[in-house]
Amino acid sequence: xxxxxxxxxxxxxxxxxxxxxxxxxxxxxxxxxxxxxxxxxxxxxxxxxxxxxxxxxxxxxxxxxxxxxxxxxxxxxxxxxxxxxxxxxxxxxxxxxxxxxxxxxxxxxxxxxxxxxxxxxxxxxxxxxxxxxxxxxxxxxxxxxxxxxxxxxxxxxxxxxxxxxxxxxxxxxxxxxxxxxxxxxxxxxxxxxxxxxxxxxxxxxxxxxxxxxxxxxxxxxxxxxxxxxxxxxxxxxxxxxxxxxxxxxxxxxxxxxxxxxxxxxxxxxxxxxxxxxxxxxxxxxxxxxxxxxxxxxxxxxxxxxxxxxxxxxxxxxxxxxxxxxxxxxxxxxxxxxxxxxxxxxxxxxxxxxxxxxxxxxxxxxxxxxxxxxxxxxxxxxxxx
Length: 384
Ligand SMILES: Cc1cc2nc3c(=O)[nH]c(=O)nc-3n(C[C@H](O)[C@H](O)[C@H](O)COP(=O)(O)OP(=O)(O)OC[C@H]3O[C@@H](n4cnc5c(N)ncnc54)[C@H](O)[C@@H]3O)c2cc1C
Hints:
alpha/beta; 384 residues; binds flavin-adenine dinucleotide
């Protein structure tokens, strides 16, 4: 509530991705009046799967969205990494007693669930509405020339955030020279041996990787990962001969790859500050990271919910945003830095990588460090 007028406090949010929708739902559930501006004409997302670890599941639970988000989800028994001759380098236990939980679902399902959760809480979602800037005193400026005043403005408009850049918040944006083509295909029993079918598996050869991810009973999410200057490998449609030559043990799977797919380069974004006055920045706009831990969306979920909890009832929104950053930024930066380091091994010789990962895979401390975000208890959540 606004202390003077008694009216609900108002938030204007740029971007209807994971970060923007989570923040919107969490604010509206706390009595805020919320509008989300999405530049695209629809709220549909592209065809791919997404890994959601325990920390993200806790946020979905706190939003009342867990059940819908995980209908038909795949719950794998382990995560394996395999070397160039398909021997197991690491076996990461998941979903057992005491392990971090991990589910995979379709991105479409996650976004659809968050949209439904927003609508149930009374959020207004406006498509074809592009944000171009914000002012620290709480105005969101739109491409149609209108200005929307609010108690809180959120820039959750992705890695190329115009809201962030209008406030001169960028500390650095680093291109990691690597990326992935993502696609969804149907599952087929002949792709991998029977004992591997339900697992999540990342296969390495040279500087290329293939990520095998069942994402439902029917859907297989495949990511073809390569260096950004591996021009032939990053072509869409994927060059089946090239990928089969690198991964002969996956010839059946590669032969079935469709003609579609989306290439994304991996980047890291760090900001001088996550807020300026009444404007907060979150998600990839504030803390993009490479996807080796499957936690970019997880951090967007955590920071969106934590933001709503931080400003809820706070007498001074700008001060609450500073405190929000102080509390949440360390775990996000740990996640970014750990993920970035994991990318180093893309460029190691096969034999070296295989030997090192077989050793590190057995080291409990390294495992705990990698799983720190998955095991983290996000602000305003309870265990699932
Ligand atoms: C290959 C790959 C695999 C990944 N796998 C995982 C995974 O398994 N698990 C995981 O947790 N994370 C994963 N991630 C990371 C995750 O996808 C992102 O961190 C997450 O989508 C960020 O959400 P966001 O809402 O911040 O940004 P986005 O998803 O980029 O959403 C931003 C939204 O804002 C809209 N927009 C953009 N500009 C404007 C504007 N000016 N005005 C209004 N709207 C605008 C966009 O259309 C979009 O809808 C992966 C990333 C990559 C590249």
